[in-house]
Write a structure and sequence with these properties.
Elements: E1 13-17, H1 23-28, H2 34-40, E2 42-47, E3 50-55, H3 56-64, H4 67-72, E4 77-82, H5 91-100, E5 105-109, H6 120-134, E6 154-158, E7 166-170, E8 173-177, H7 192-214, E9 221-232, E10 245-256, H8 261-271, H9 275-280
Parallel strand pairs: 1-4, 4-5
Antiparallel strand pairs: 2-3, 6-7, 7-8, 9-10
Helix pairs in contact: 7-8
C-alpha cells in the first residue's frame, strides 16, 4: 500500500499496521529459504506463527521498490500503528516511515500488542481509531443513495462489510451495529437487542436523575443492568398472555447515595415511568413504507 497508494488517484488516506520500512525486511524473515524459493518457484514459510506461500515473483517484486522514496512522495494522509514490543517488525520501522512521510501523518503506539493483533481488544481498538481518523478524509462516496434527512430521524444503513454490519446515524452521531462472530457477524458493534436494552437503561437513569434533582434527593449515581430473554408465558403470573413465549427484560438498578428506604422505593417506582419503558409496555403502531432511492448526480 505504501508503494502503490501514490499511483491510485482515488486513494485519499493510507493506514499501516506493523509495517516494515524496507521491503528487504520481509525477505529477511525467510532469508534461509531464498535459494529454495529461487529453485522451486514457491515455498511455504511460517511467519509470526502463520503459514504463507512465498513465490519467486513476490521476492523479485520486493527487490524493485525503494519504499522510503515512495513514502516521501505519497501525498496522502497517513496513519501508522505499531507496537513498541513487536518482535517481528521492530518499532524503528515505524520511526523511519513517519520521518520520511509528509504531513498529514499520525502515529499510534500499540503498547502490549503483538504483530498480528491476535488479542481481540487490540484489534477492536485499532478498528475504532481507523474509523474515527478516516472520517476526516473520507466524505460520502459519489453516486450513493444518501438523501438529506431530518436530524431527528434515525437512519440505519448497511455498510456491506460482513453480513450484518450497519451504520447508524442519529443527528451528528454515527456508530455501528452488528452481530457476534458466532452467528456470522463481525462483532463490530452492539446488536439490535443490545441497543434496545441500552435505550431503556439510558432512559431509566436519566429519568431517575431528573426526579432526584427535582426532589433534592441525595442520589450520587445510578447504574442500570439489563438482560433480555424469552420465557414461557405460563411462567409469568402477571402477564395476560398465558400461551406460547414472551419477551422478558430483567432490569437491576443500583442507587448510590444516602437514601432512606422510602426514597429508594419511590425511585424504583419512577423507573417504570421513563418514556422508553412506557413505549415498550404500551400498544405501538409501527408503519412500514418503501422510500424511493434518490441517487446523487
Amino acid at each position: 500500500m505504501l508503494a502503490a497508494a501514490a499511483e491510485v488517484p482515488e486513494a485519499r488516506a493510507v493506514v499501516t499496521i506493523a509495517a516494515p520500512c524496507d521491503p528487504t525486511h520481509v525477505t529477511g524473515l525467510f532469508k534461509d529459504r531464498l535459494e529454495e524459493i529461487a529453485a522451486k518457484g514457491e515455498v511455504e514459510a511460517t511467519l509470526a506463527g502463520r503459514r504463507f506461500r512465498i513465490s519467486r515473483a513476490f521476492v523479485d517484486d520486493l527487490a524493485e521498490h525503494k519504499l522510503l522514496e515512495r513514502i516521501a512522495n505519497l501525498r496522502k494522509a497517513l496513519l501508522l500503528f505499531h507496537s513498541p514490543t513487536d518482535e517481528i517488525v521492530g518499532i524503528e520501522n515505524a520511526s523511519r516511515i513517519f520521518t520520511a512521510a509528509k504531513h498529514p501523518k499520525s502515529f499510534v503506539s500499540l503498547a502490549g500488542a503483538d504483530h498480528l493483533l491476535s488479542r481481540h481488544s487490540d484489534a477492536a481498538y485499532v478498528a475504532n481509531v481507523i474509523h474515527a481518523w478516516a472520517e476526516r478524509y473520507l466524505g460520502a462516496p459519489q453516486g450513493t443513495s444518501e438523501a438529506p434527512h431530518d436530524p431527528k430521524v434515525v437512519v440505519v444503513r448497511e455498510t456491506r462489510q460482513g453480513r450484518f454490519q450497519q451504520e447508524i446515524t442519529v443527528g451528528a452521531h454515527r456508530f455501528l451495529a452488528d452481530e457476534p462472530v458466532d452467528v456470522g457477524g463481525l462483532d463490530s458493534g452492539p446488536g439490535p437487542y443490545d441497543l434496545l436494552l441500552a435505550g431503556l437503561g439510558a432512559c431509566t437513569a436519566m429519568t431517575l436523575r431528573l426526579y432526584a434533582e427535582r426532589k433534592a434527593l441525595p442520589l450520587e449515581r445510578v447504574t442500570v443492568e439489563l438482560e433480555h430473554s424469552r420465557i414461557h408465558a405460563a411462567d409469568c403470573e402477571d402477564c395476560e398472555t398465558k400461551e406460547g413465549m414472551l419477551d422478558r427484560i430483567e432490569r437491576a438498578i443500583t442507587l448510590r447515595g444516602a437514601l432512606d428506604a422510602e426514597q429508594r422505593r419511590r425511585l424504583l417506582e419512577i423507573a417504570d415511568k421513563c418514556p422508553v419503558h412506557r413505549t415498550l409496555t404500551s400498544e405501538i403502531d409501527i408503519r412500514t413504507v418503501e422510500r424511493p432511492e434518490i441517487t446523487r448526480p
